[in-house]
Design goal:
Radius of gyration of chain A: 26 Å
Strand content of chain A: 5-15%
Number of helices of chain A: 23
CATH class of the largest domain in chain A: Alpha Beta
CATH topology of the largest domain in chain A: Rossmann fold
Structural class of chain A: alpha/beta
Oligomer: homodimer
Largest sheet of chain A: 6 strands, parallel
Shape of chain A: globular
Helix content of chain A: 25-40%
CATH architecture of the largest domain in chain A: 3-Layer(aba) Sandwich
Strand order of the largest sheet of chain A: 11-10-12-13-15-14
Chain lengths: 672, 672
């Protein structure tokens, strides 16, 4: 158990009070912030060191020397949030103690959220920043306010179409009070941009869009000072500063420049360092900090420390993405028409083995989901079987219209969306995908499937890749390795629209899918049996928009209560399909029927915190089921109520922890 | 009743057989195609003359002189389809008689569809073309085939982010066999591009993305010949030809150059000419054609003709967009925080009066929906009440993730999606929006409303703009003027989640929304009463994702059958919400329950044809309701079945007209 060191707030105050020129002081301040960003990420167990370190000199300069009270600054890439939090806490714009709570419930979310003080916009899904800033400046104009907007973008982010879309009008409206800064660290996610989708002559591109372009060494604070001073000259043009930076700047072995050209992956994009790496990194920064302090005739930095928190690790987790990765290579070996498209997430979506085995059939599209999906559509029209990969949150929404367009051509395309569902809860709601089932539910001829174990992944992949499956498929995968307290029956077969009972029960049946919710449900069934003598059947239905009515009728016919459980918003998920089907079955129905699932924007936190906050952990499910059955047992409560608008629930999720247990459907009483 | 003239196929054969140099012959061919494109559009009653005429010289050149059997050509903008159809029918690549069936069922769809011979891709939603072509060329590489791809794009289309997204990888992979042609006619929809979102130095932009750029007068066929010949030199670079064209080229008074700089609108973008205009246009082209023929010592052109079809016009139609247009100006007068965003559809979405009244609060974003929605989000963060406008098909899907991102910031944004639903049926499935309810159903805090009459539009607008409405709203508007056979009760009030009974009934209740489906339902109720002695209640519920359970229970409690009717896919629409709610009510339920709505990709045709094809006209609804009640009356049919995959229905919708009546849920018999 090592100690993690951080720079206390009074040390920042001391440094900022030093007599020294602002260039040297800002460099020192940035390094102090690197120490705290590293502390936050290591303590949290995940975060983005590389991009936080690459932007810290520029961000420090802006906050210490450039921004006025009327100005707005935010980062469009968003995953550099630890750097921003380090600066904001150091300057007292954000409660300092929050540095101990990165990616924790009620702490600092993995990507920026306006619910956090001093955060101007929700970012993390790429390419939206300049558009948002234009809207903010429009508000200033309409409401007669002053103020400029500064937006930090990544460089990989420039592959996103919305970025280019947002450039045109800013130039045409001569938006001189808008300044973009590109953190040009040359590495996107884990790979050299030049290998993914080279940006070419960036200055020429940006100039051709009518923007005033400046270029600067993003770690030379003197040059940064001169560059920002020079921008004033371009009065009536939007400005963009290309800051040439080094990913991981500040710790020699974390710097992108330490990456050998033939290295496939940069190791410090996301995740957190192990003890050894952390202990190696800190002294490097501290030594530089103290050298700077002594050159200013100031005492060495005083650090405080806290033990690194234990991180409970799954014992024998199911790793669905790894299982899919093996299945893809296997099927590709037998079907030469299979090509795989990647949206700059080859590592996270399990594509590296496919890329190694079939480099000519691996298409790296970069962060350009719309282009990727339409390319897949064109390939399908000409005889290939395209398999499109990204995180579910980006794949289902950003190219939503392109997926529909492909569907209207009656071709077969396989979409694989990983990182699906509420957890991991660390990255925040831009990455917690709980809308994809609804967003894709009305795409004709698209089958949505979510497997719960590695074995079921193999079955689902076999279904998707089968020649006999003529429809397009969306394979929804939970990415976080997960211990599951159940096993699929040995004789289980994947049959379209049919599920399988994991736990038999007589008092109620709960239908769910995927490792996370099925896992919590099985544990909830144990709690219900042991504490309340309630016998809950738990049923796995991996089909998200298909149900076999014969099978479903057999599941519900003899139970007095039916619960559905979605790793998704309660609206538009599997529960809606099942309840609609129940109504269509016209069974005698006096049974208790209730959907469980996400009822508000996902909160950010440790996985267990997030599940509890949404009332979707085993204990929360147990309490809700007990309360529901008890309430409904009382005829006085057999009254009907209005479907709750989401917002009635918002306050509760985000405020009083005492209420966290009831963040599902409201109790069955009249709310009006 | 005037006659409409067209060039018969044998005349094309005669012209193509003439001894003449290919430049002059191609110019002549293009003019003949202009006559047939004008014929098709005038006969159909709608279509895009301006863009069809501007691209015809280039498209004719490609088909007559450039394309080989291995090459692929398609238009990304898609609304120039009449030009493409004119060329394809003239060359026998498409059955010639189809020219009489533009925008008719089983004819030629308003936007290209691969179900039509010689059509390579489904286009019409902008910006996807180059991506699709890259996928096709990828397939050639993987499958070891030869062939080039030529893609025609609009110039307004270049505002779409996906276009720029698609440029990068083509340059990086040195895709030398890809050629894009920009039909640069300078006018997008009805307005000068320079007034919407100026493209600036287009050549510099495109060159900076690594493409080989050529520029040519798009009506000088000699120059076009030289330009395409010159492209071969750029062996390993993707090529883009900027063709400077004139919108409406070929008929003097239809040419964009005839537009005075201060004219707000170009009149020949869409729609069809009246008799007088048509009769004035044809002789101009014929005269030029005959001059060319005589210069080739050939006889004058022989035209055939057919009478212009009668077009039944609504007598006293409800015009919902016009009503919304008035309401917006009205509310904006009382709330200075209201700003309106337009995505290059100011005319169609009713924004011209607002623009005239509040020019400083009107933001024209061009064809850039993602940028538009994120701008609105930024404006909302800084205190404005943004109202975002586009066609429902583009607003709900293209910026789907941006709408969710705004929702996570808990701000209020009003989205207004017009052209919603199955009709008008002429433009085709890229514009027939029947997915938006599902795509937006899981956006937290977003209320979806569809009014059915001008009066209900006023009520819905009042709800959306009210200070007391804290949630964001999506106002779904049918655009086509529609005669409705019902009136809302004089004492009707819009109450969240509650509807109103338009026709009382005791044997079954049908819940629907909007002018089209409510209109058909009310007529179906009359047919059921008169022909079958069945008493059907018709209920209007304008709330698409909210239902008051107390009210709904009162609607369904005493009827033996419940039907829901969506102007949307049956999956993810209002019907799903109502059936789910019915299950949650746990009422004794032996009642017949059935969702009616769209079950497959919308077909293209005249409005009455489209409604009939999907079984959603009054007669189709009547038949289905009778059949359902009869089937369910027979206990032998009380068996359950599987939820139908869409594809089982596809064949029927698109093939045998005899089956058209049953294009809804399958009959209640076992399908397995």
């Amino acid at each position: 158990m090592i100690d993690l060191q951080y720079v206390p707030q009074d040390e920042f105050a001391r440094v900022l009070a030093l007599e020294a020129d602002r260039v040297r002081k800002t460099a020192l301040f940035a390094d102090l912030c690197r120490l705290n960003a590293l502390y936050m990420i290591t303590r949290a167990g995940s975060g983005h060191i590389g991009t936080s370190f690459s932007c810290l000199d520029v961000v420090s300069w802006l906050y210490l020397n450039e921004l006025t009270a009327a100005d707005v600054f935010f980062s469009s890439k968003g995953h550099d949030a630890p750097a921003l939090y380090a600066v904001l806490t150091a300057l007292g714009k954000l409660p300092f103690d929050k540095i101990h709570a990165l990616r924790r419930l009620d702490g600092l979310p993995g990507h920026p959220d306006v619910a956090t003080p001093a955060i101007e916009a929700n970012t993390g899904s790429l390419g939206m920043g300049l558009s948002k800033a234009k809207g903010m400046l429009l508000a200033n104009r309409v409401l007669g306010r002053e103020g400029r907007a500064f937006v930090l973008t990544g460089d990989g982010e420039l592959q996103e179409g919305q970025f280019w879309e947002s450039l045109l009008s800013a130039a045409n409206t001569r938006l001189g009070n808008l300044t973009a800064i590109v953190d040009h660290n040359k590495i996107q996610s884990d790979i050299w941009i030049s290998r993914v989708s080279d940006l070419g002559d960036l200055e020429a591109k940006l100039s051709s869009f009518g923007w005033h372009v400046a270029r600067v060494d993003g770690h030379d604070l003197g040059a940064i000072a001169r560059t920002f001073a020079s921008l004033a000259s371009a009065v009536d043009r939007p400005k963009i500063v290309i800051a040439d930076t080094i990913k991981g700047r500040g710790v020699s072995f974390m710097e992108g420049t330490a990456l050998r050209p033939d290295d496939r992956l940069y190791r410090f994009h996301s995740g957190s360092p192990d003890d050894e790496t952390y202990l190696k990194a800190v002294p490097e920064i501290v030594e530089r900090v103290n050298a700077a302090l002594s050159s200013m005739r100031a005492a060495a930095v005083r650090l405080e420390s806290l033990p690194r928190p234990e991180r409970p690790m799954p014992r024998r987790p199911q790793r669905l993405v790894a299982a899919y990765s093996r299945a893809l290579v296997d099927h590709a070996g037998r079907n030469p028409r299979i090509v795989a498209f990647d949206g700059d997430l080859a590592l996270d979506t399990g594509l590296l083995p496919f890329e190694a085995a079939y480099p000519d059939r691996f298409i790296e599209c970069g962060i350009a989901e719309q282009d990727m999906v339409s390319q897949a559509g064109g390939a399908a029209l000409k005889g290939l079987l395209p398999v499109v990969h990204s995180f579910a949150c980006f794949l289902s929404d950003r190219p939503n219209e392109q997926i529909f367009n492909n569907a209207t051509e009656r071709t077969k395309v396989i979409y694989v969306g990983s990182l699906a569902g509420l957890v991991p809860g660390g990255p925040g709601h831009s990455h917690q995908c709980v809308r994809d089932i609804a967003a894709l539910s009305a795409v004709p001829g698209l089958v949505l499937i979510e497997p719960s174990t590695e074995r079921e992944v193999d079955m689902a992949a076999a279904y998707c890749f089968a020649e006999t499956t003529r429809e397009s498929c969306y394979l929804r995968l939970v990415s976080v390795p997960w211990d599951v307290p159940f096993e699929l029956p040995a004789d289980y077969e994947l049959l379209e629209g049919r599920g399988v009972t994991l736990v038999p029960g007589r008092d109620a049946a709960l239908v769910a899918y995927g490792p996370v919710m099925l896992g919590e449900a099985v544990q909830a069934a144990e709690l219900l049996r042991d504490r309340h003598d309630i016998s809950l059947a738990v049923v796995n239905l991996p089909w998200l928009n298909r149900v076999d009515r014969i099978w479903f009728a057999s599941v519900v016919r003899d139970v007095p209560a039916l619960f559905t459980l979605d790793n998704h918003f309660i609206h538009g998920g599997q529960g809606d399909m099942l309840l609609r089907t129940l109504a269509e079955l016209s069974l005698p129905n006096e049974r208790v029927v209730r959907r469980l699932g996400v009822t508000d924007v996902p909160v950010c936190g440790r996985n267990d915190e997030v599940l509890r906050a949404h009332g979707l952990d085993a204990a929360g499910l147990c309490d809700t089921i007990v309360a529901t059955l008890a309430l409904r047992a009382d005829p006085a409560n057999r009254r009907v109520q209005k479907d709750p608008p989401y917002d009635t629930e918002v306050g509760r999720v985000l405020s009083d922890p005492a209420d966290r247990r009831v963040q599902k459907d409201p109790p069955y009483t009249v709310t009006k």
